[in-house]
Amino acid sequence: MYLGHLLAIGSSFLAAFVIPAPDQGGTPGGGGGTAMLGAYRQPWTPPAHSWEARVHSCANPIPFDLAAVDDFSFPKDGKIARLRWWGVLLDPNQANDHPYYVAIYSDNACAPDALLYEACVIPQVEFVDVDCHGDLVFVFSAKIPEFQVTADARYWIQISENDQQSANVGQEDFRWSGRQPVRGCEAGQIDSKGIFHAPLVDVCNDQRDDMSFVIGGKFLP
Ligand SMILES: [Ca+2]
Ligand SMILES: [Ca+2]
Predict the structure, then answer these.
(1) How far apart are CA 103 and CA 6, in angstroms?
(2) Does residue 138 have a pLDDT over 70?
(3) Rounded distance from Cα 99 to ligand 1 centre (Å)
């Protein structure tokens, strides 16, 4: 397993991550030189609720019991290297120095298919707000090992609590916050048998949720 060397500390993230102004994700902008900074953006939309997003560990990333996933794409070839997401912490101790499992899959008819990438990252965590359920929502920021994306290809991203290295082993400490409206395919959850379940209907307003995240990288002009 090569996960050990993929462990990335997010300490340099805030200084390095420049998000272009428009909130229309997938459009490269800003930057300069040969590569342009770009981001796929679907940030948390308060007060959307949260979804179970947990695996046993980075070394054994079987969902425990459900792992939320959502799709993304970019209009240009490029390399993604930064990630931001919103989520609920059920124990404040989970805010400090706990690793999360990140995976990227190919797409098959609006469902995750082949595993293309996995990483184990320790994010910076900052309190944001309270959701409709009264849970505390935080924003998580991390630099991730680069992943090459192909223009207009649809991918799926999974961001999960690493239960084995969480504040409370065997209990949910983190839930990934939803957001609306759905963009692209409907977000869903993978169960421990690999079955994909969608859509996700938010308890706040009975509308369908996508997951909340921003992916940043460098793209060809
Ligand atoms: Ca846990
Ligand atoms: Ca989606």
Answers:
(1) 12
(2) yes
(3) 11
Q: Distance from the CA of 161 to the center of ligand 1, in angstroms?
A: 7
Residues near ion ligand 1 (CB < 5 Å) are: 163, 166, 168, 171, 173
Distance from the CA of 116 to the center of ligand 1, in angstroms?
A: 25
Interatomic CA distance for residues 23 and 56, integer angstroms: 34
What pLDDT is recorded for position 41?
A: 97
Q: Report the alpha-carbon angle 11-217-28, nearest 5.
A: 135
| Confidence at residue 112, expressed as pLDDT on a 0 to 100 scale | 98
Average pLDDT rounded to a whole number, residues 107-135: 98
What is the per-residue pLDDT for 35?
82
Structural domain harbouring 104: 3-219
Q: Is 30 helix (H, G, I), strand (E, B) or coil?
A: coil
Would you call 3 helix, strand, or coil by DSSP? helix
CA geometry: angle at 87 spanning 82 and 92, to 5°?
A: 110
Please report the pLDDT score of residue 221 as a whole number.
82
pTM of the model: 0.85
Q: Round to whole Å and give the CA distance between 90 and 139.
A: 14
CA–CA distances in Å: residue 155 to residues 25, 90, 105, 138, 145: 14, 29, 6, 25, 16
Number of domains in the chain: 1
